[in-house]
Amino acid sequence: MAANSAIPNVEKKVLVASLVFAAAMLGLIAYAAIRLGISVPTCITNVKPFEEGELIRVAPGRYEAHVVAKTWSFKPNRLKVERGSVVDFYVTSKDIVHGFMIERTNVNLMAIPGTVNYAQARFDEAGTHQILCHEFCRDGHDNMMGSIEVTR
Amino acid sequence: MSSFWLMSLILAELLPPAQPGLVPRSLAVLDEQDRHQNFGTAGRPTLLVPIFTRCAESCPLTAVAVKQAMPGPSADFRVVLLSFDPKDTAADLRGFRRRLDLPSQWLVVRSIDAAATRELFDDLEFRVMNSGGGFNHADQTFVFSPKGLWAATLSGPPSEEELSSAHRRALAADDGTASQRLASWLIRPETWIVLACAGFGVSLAAVLLLARRAKGGSTAPQ
Amino acid sequence: MIQKNLRAIIVLELLFPLILLLFGAYHGVLQVFYRAGVIQETSFLGIGYYKGLTAHGVINAIVLTTFFAVAFGHAVVSQQLEQSVSAAAAKAGAALMVFGTLVAAGPIFAGKADVLYTFYAPMKAHPLFYIGVVLLVVGSWVSFWGWIPGYLRWRRSHPGQKTPLGAVGIFATFIIWQMCTLPVAYEVLVQLIPWSLGLTAGVNVVLSRLLFWFFGHPLVYFWLLPAYVMYYMIMPRLAGGKLYSDFYGRFVFLAFIVLSTPLGLHHQFAEPAISSGYKALHAALTFLVAVPSLLTAFTLAASLEYGARQNGGKGLFAWWGKLPHFDKERWLFPYLFLGLVIFILGGITGIVNASYSMNALIHNTSWIPAHFHLTVAGPVFLAILGMSLYLSVGVLGKKIVAPGVAVSIPYVWTLGVFTFSAGLFYGGLKGVPRRTNLGMSYLDELSDAYRPDWRIGEYIGAVGGSIMGLAVLLFFYVLVRSLASARSERQADSFALPESEAYHDEDVGVVKNFRPWIVAAVVAILISYIPPLVQVLGANYPLVSE
Question: C135, C100 in Cβ contact below 8 A?
Fold first, then answer.
C-alpha cells in the first residue's frame, strides 16, 4: 500500500512534535542554568587535592568546608553552621571513589581521588541534614556518613 | 585549525559575561592608609584584580603584566587591586605596592567585610579557597564599564591586545545594544545546549528533505 | 527459517545465561530484603550483599543481555538474509563468550571481584574478572563479524532492494556495540588489567571513568535495540496487523547509530574534572536521542491500531482492547506490549536523569535503580524472557507447556516492577542511596543512623521485588516444562520468526545504506568527546591505586 510515495504528513508532524518537545525541555534547563544559576559541578583546575579536612569560618555566615572522603569516613563529618549561612563545599577523596550527598540540598557530588569537586549551599532553616556516601566503596560503605547541623 | 580554536577561546573570555548589567554590590574597603574608599563607579573603565599580599605566583605576575601592558590606549583604566585576605594589613598593602613598583594611580585596597567580599566573588563567579595559610584562586581579572557594569573577565596575566580589547568592551558595555545582549547570552557554555539542539534539528530536517527527494530512487548497494 | 547449523548455538546462547539468571534473580530478591532491613547482615547464606550485587549486575545486565543479543541476532540474520551466517564464527564467538563468562564468574563468586558491574577504578578486582569480561565482549564481536560477509553478499545479489527491517535493526545494534566497546576495551586492556596484574602503579581514574561512560550509555541501546527489532518486526504481526511505517522503522534504527554514543557525560554530571559546558552539550544530545523513541511510540501505536481495527476495534480508545492481551496462541504479545507500557515511565524518568541540573536531586539515590528497572528490567528483560522461550522452544521443535501461565508472566512482572520502582522512586527523592546495604545502618533500628522515614519506600520495593521473583519462578516453570516436552523435527524445521509487512512501505534512499549514518556517528562522537578528552588528558591527573 502506498509504495514509493513521499512520507505521510502525519509522520512529519510526529517528528516535529518530538523535536519541539525536546527543545522545550532543553529550553527550561537552559533557563535554569543561565538565569537562575542552577548548574552542575564543573572542572576546577587551580586547586590541588588537600590532605586535611576542616571547616573554616571565613566570616559570620560564610564558611568553607574542606571535606576529605576516605574509606569509610568524611573529615570533618560533623559540621555546625548558623542559620542563613552560605557554605562552599570542596570535596576530595584520599583513596577510591566516594559519593558526597547532603540531603535536602542540591549538593550531590562525586569525590574522586586526585581531583577537587565544588558545590555551594545556603542553609536557611534550622535543623540537621544528613551527609552520606552513595557510591559503593566496599564493606563499610553503609556506615559512611556525617551531618551538618544548622543552628538557630 | 588549532589557532582558530585558541582564538575563539580567547575571544570567549573577552566577551561580556552572561549577566549583562550586573553591578557588583558596593564593597567597603580600606586603602593603604586605612582610609575608607568606595568601590563605586569612576566614570572610567575599571580593572579589578583580586589579590592577597602573600601570594607568590599569580597575583604578582598578573599585576606586573598589567603594569607592562598599560601604556597605550588602555591607560584609561582605573586599576584596583583588592585584597581578600582578612589578615592583610595596611602595611602589607604598602609592601606589595613597593615590591612590585606599582604606579601611584593604582588603588591597592583591602576588604573589611569578608562575607560581602565572598558574595561579590560569587556574583563574579570567582572562587577563592583557603589553602595552607594562603589561598587557591582562579587567575582572573575583572573588567567594568564606566557606569560600573561587569563587562568581561580576563584569564591569566593579560597581554596588551587583551587589555585593548577589554577596554573597548568596557566602553561598549554601557551602550547595551541588542547585539551586545545577544552576544552576552551566546558565550555561556550552557547556551551551547540550544545551538547543539538546533544544529541537530536542522540536520534531521535535512534528512527528511533528502528522503522526500529520493522518491522511488534506489542507491547502489555498498 | 533459521539456519540449521546455528540451532545448537542459539539454544546454548539462550539457555546458558538463563541458568545464571537463576542466581541473578535470586539475589535480586534478596537485595530488596537487605534494603528493607528484613535482613540486617552483611551476608546471607554465605553470600555477601556486595558480592551478590556484583553478580546480579554482571549476570543480568551484561551476560544475559549480550548472549541474548547474539542469539537473537543469529536467528534474525539467518532467517532474513537467506541462511548466510558463518557457523564457524558463531561457534568461535559462543565459545569465547561462555569461556569468558566462566572466567569472570570465578573471581566474583570467590569474593575477589566485589566491584559491581561498573568496576570503578581504583577499586581493584582480580585480573581474571577483567580478562573474562574482555573475552565475553570479544566473543560477541566475533559473532557479529560472522554476519557481515553474508550481509554483503545479500546486498550484492539483491541490488536496489531494501534489507529486511529485522536485520537492519540487528546490524544497527551491533554497529553501536562495536563502536562503543572500543573505549572500554582501552580502559580494561590498557589501564585496568596491567594495574590489576601489578605491572603499573595506578590508574588515571578520571580518564577511566570517561572511557567507561563513553561505553556505558550506548550499552543501554545495545540492550534495547533487540527489543525494538521485536517491536517493529514481530509485534504488528502478532497483533494481526502491519507495521505502520517501514521508513520510520529504518530511520529510528539508523538514528540510534548516530545518537547513542555522543552523550555519555550525562552519567557524569556530578563529577569534577569535566567542564559544565561539555556536560551541557551531552545533555542536549541526550534530549535528541529521546526523539527516536518518541517516534517509535507513535509508529508502534499506529501499527497496533491498524491491527486492532482489522480485528473489529472501534472508537477512539476502545480498540486497545482488541489486541491479543490474553491470547494463549499468541502468548508472546504481552511480553512485548507490556514492555512498551513499562518503557513509557522508564523513558520519562530517563529524561529527568538527563535534565542536567535536576541530576543533583537524584544522582546515586534509589531513584536510579528504580529508573533502570523500568528500562533494562522492563522492555529489555520481558523481550528477553519472551523471546528466549519462543526461540528455544521453536528451534528445538517443542511445544509451550502451560501457555496460560506463559501469558500471565509479563503481567505479574509488570505489577512487580512498577511496585518496586514506585517504592524506590519515592525513597530516592527522600535521599535513600543506591548501592548500599541499608539494613546495616539506615534501616537498622538500633543504629545511630536509623532513618524511619526511609522504611516505606523500601518496604514497597520489597513487595515489588518479591512479585518480580515470582514472575521469574513462573517463567522457569514454563521454560523447563516446555523444554522437557516432546520434540518434533518437522516443527523445528518449519519454525520461523513472525515477520510483519508494512502499511507504508516507501522506498527512501537515505535509509538504505549504513555508511552515511556510521560516518555521522563518528563525526558526532568526535565533536562531543574530543573536547572533554583533551581537557582530561591535559590536566594530567595522577595515577591512583587502592
Answer: yes
DSSP C210-234: HHHHHHHHHHHHHHHHHHHHHHHHT
Q: How far apart are CA C301 and CA C278, in angstroms?
A: 36
Whether C267 is a known active-site residue: answer no
Say whether C245 sits in a helix, a strand or coil.
Answer: strand
Q: List for chain C the helix, strand, coil content (%; round to 5).
A: 70, 5, 25
In a domain, C546, yes or no: no
For C374, the domain range is: 4-538
C507 and B218 within 8 Å at the Cβ level: the answer is yes
CA neighbours closer than 13 Å in the CB half-sphere of residue C120: 19
Average pLDDT over residues C460-465: 97
Give percent above pLDDT 90 in chain C: 86
pTM, 2 dp: 0.90
**Read out DSSP for A55-110?**
EEEEETTEEEEEEEEETTEEES-EEEEETTEEEEEEEEESSS-EEEEETTSS-EEE
Question: Roughly what angle, to the nearest 10 degrees, separates helices C381-395 and C403-429?
Answer: 160
Could you tell me which residues are beta bridge partners of residue B46? B78, B144
For helices B58-69 and B160-173, the axis angle rounded to 10 degrees is 80
Of B192, B203, B211, nearest to C280 by CB-CB distance is B192
Residue among B194, B199, B197 at smallest CA distance from B182: B194
Does the residue C545 lie in any domain?
A: no
Average pLDDT, chain B: 76
Residue C294, number of CB atoms within 10 A of its CB: 18
Least confident of A19-23, C16-20, C92-96, C444-448: A19-23
**Among partner residues B193, B218, B221, which is closest to C280 by beta-carbon distance?**
B193
What is the C-alpha separation between C397 and C489, in angstroms, rounded? 6
Q: Is the pLDDT confidence value at B28 over 70?
A: yes
Question: Is C130:C113 a contact under the CB 8 Å cutoff?
Answer: no
Mutate to test the interface with A, among C242, C271, C537 (most CBs of A within 10 A): C271
User: Would residue C297 count as lying in a domain?
Assistant: yes
- Which chain A residue's Cα is nearest to C278? A42
pLDDT digits (tens, 9 = 90+) for A16-74: 888 888 888 888 888 788 777 788 998 887 788 899 999 999 999 999 999 999 999 99
Name which of C216, C210, C215 is nearest C278 in CA terms.
Answer: C210
Say yes or no for a CB contact (<8 Å) between C280 and B204: no
Chain C residues with beta carbon closer than 8 angstroms to that of B210? 509-510
- C376 burial (CB, 10 Å; 0-12 / 13-18 / 19+) is buried
CATH code of the domain in which C38 resides: 1.20.210.10
Residues 35-54 of C with CB under 8 A from A: 42, 50, 53
What pLDDT, on the 0 to 100 scale, is given for residue C423?
Answer: 97
C286 within 8 A of C221, measured Cβ to Cβ: no
Residue C442 predicted with pLDDT over 80: yes
User: Which residues make beta-bridge pairs with C241?
Assistant: none
Catalytic residue check, C317: no
Task: Write out chain C residues lying below 8 Å of B204, CB-based.
Answer: 255, 291
Question: How far, in Å, CA of C210 to CA of B100, rounded?
Answer: 44
Name the 3-class secondary structure at C260: coil
Interface confidence (ipTM) of the complex: 0.91
What total number of domains does chain C contain?
1
Alpha-carbon gap: B114 to the closest alpha carbon of chain A (Å): 6
Which residue in chain C is spatially nearest to A22 when comparing CA positions?
Answer: C287
Q: Is residue C348 part of a domain?
A: yes
Average pLDDT, chain A: 89
Distance, CA of C467 to CA of C471 (rounded, Å): 6
Q: Is the pLDDT of residue C519 over 50?
A: yes
CA distance C458 to C455: 5
SS3 C57: helix
The pLDDT of residue B183 is 62
